[in-house]
Task: inverse folding
């Protein structure tokens, strides 16, 4: 899995941002887009920094609209605990108990704590201090146990597995957690679940699946297994949702990476508000100060008056309030099945098919013009793609006599016109 370390646009090195802590996970270069990229935005309003706001806000394993608390308890979104009578009901990890005892806490061995004390020793990560996202199950675990609060789907799965009364609590054995579905064949490219390449109903299936609590729970766990956190997970969540709904795309950890992956597969740009349908992919305006990097990307779930409803890493179906990044446009999968617009990897063994990805295999270190997109170049280091470059203003990369990219200084030069 290759992570781009450099991406240059307009001659300035820029990091990949907006719902992402890293660049794209595929070694493919950016492909030409489909649709009207220069039309009017669906929603008016200035560019904002929703990505930064999200990073500054604690995001727990469970959300206010998915957490299930023991009888009499309610979920406190500020602390991440189920509470009752101003006290946190747990769970308290061994590390939290130790910190409580060493940090002047009171009643550290009690079954419930003062809420302020619990919040103090819990920390602000997705999982409580002393626990972490399990790399297989995508849930918070401490030793052999998973720690909550849990979603109703997890509670139901626990009960179906014979967990009994433990399932209604805030901690039970990892063996009572259902396995996540297999999504790919090992190269992070071809989906093996869902529709097997039929694009025409991907959005409708996603609206039904990702828009259900069970589907959302599955996607969320897959997203947390990939990232280890909810923070900046919008592209990752949506990548998993599309794959589980039959779309053949790689897991993208950045909004611009997911946008480009969909456009390169022929997804249609929607610029008319009235044309948006549940299941469409929403691309927002760029993050303030970061041109070319959408601030957020999510599944459209309809309108709540004038405000869009979203399904994303921030929560199950919820209304986006004023102040969030406005909608730039929607994306919808192409009609029909198979073919380059739907699954460009289906002809990967056909020598007559155009190249679908760049590769550094057998190449010496240095810059090469992309075989996929004329305006892109990639840097090889140790037979691995180590960085990327994009030309602006309709210019292209030009190979030199040795097969490498013609350079301008230390970087690829951009020449002529597309």
Result:
């Amino acid at each position: 899995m290759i992570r781009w370390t450099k991406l240059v646009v307009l001659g300035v090195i820029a990091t990949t941002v907006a719902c992402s802590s890293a660049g794209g996970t595929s070694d493919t270069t950016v492909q030409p887009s489909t649709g009207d990229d220069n039309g009017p935005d669906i929603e008016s309003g200035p560019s904002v920094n929703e990505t930064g706001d999200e990073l500054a806000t604690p995001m727990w394993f469970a959300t206010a609209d998915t957490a299930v608390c023991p009888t009499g308890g309610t979920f406190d979104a500020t602390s991440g605990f189920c509470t009752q009578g101003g006290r946190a009901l747990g769970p308290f990890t061994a590390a939290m108990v130790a910190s409580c005892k060493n940090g002047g806490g009171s009643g550290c061995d009690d079954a419930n704590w003062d809420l302020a004390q619990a919040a103090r020793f819990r920390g602000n990560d997705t999982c409580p201090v002393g626990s972490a996202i399990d790399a297989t199950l995508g849930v918070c675990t401490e030793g052999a146990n998973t720690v909550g609060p849990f979603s109703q789907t997890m509670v139901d799965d626990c009960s179906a597995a014979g967990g009994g009364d433990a399932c209604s609590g805030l901690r039970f054995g990892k063996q009572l957690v259902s396995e996540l579905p297999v999504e790919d064949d090992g190269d992070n490219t071809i989906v093996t679940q869902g529709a097997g390449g039929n694009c025409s109903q991907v959005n409708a299936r996603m609206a039904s699946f990702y828009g259900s609590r069970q589907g959302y729970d599955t996607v969320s766990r897959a997203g947390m297994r990939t990232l280890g956190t909810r923070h900046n997970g919008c592209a990752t969540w949506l990548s998993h949702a599309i794959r589980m709904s039959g779309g053949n795309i790689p897991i993208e950890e950045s909004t611009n990476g997911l946008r480009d992956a969909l456009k390169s597969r022929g997804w249609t740009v929607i610029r008319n508000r009235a044309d948006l349908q549940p299941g469409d992919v929403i691309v927002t305006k760029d993050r303030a100060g970061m041109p070319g990097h959408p601030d957020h990307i999510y599944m459209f779930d309809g309108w709540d008056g004038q405000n869009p409803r979203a399904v994303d890493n921030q929560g199950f179906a919820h209304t986006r309030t004023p102040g969030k990044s406005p909608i730039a446009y929607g994306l919808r999968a192409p009609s029909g099945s198979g073919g380059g617009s739907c699954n460009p990897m289906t002809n990967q063994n056909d020598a007559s098919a155009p190249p679908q990805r760049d590769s550094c295999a057998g190449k010496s270190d240095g810059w090469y013009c992309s075989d996929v997109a004329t305006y892109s170049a990639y840097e090889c280091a140790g037979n691995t793609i180590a960085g990327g470059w994009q030309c602006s203003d309709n210019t292209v990369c030009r190979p030199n006599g040795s097969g490498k990219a013609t350079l301008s200084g230390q970087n690829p030069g951009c020449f002529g016109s597309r």
User: Anything to note?
Assistant: DSSP finds eight helices and 23 strands in the chain. The first strand starts at residue 7 and ends at 9.
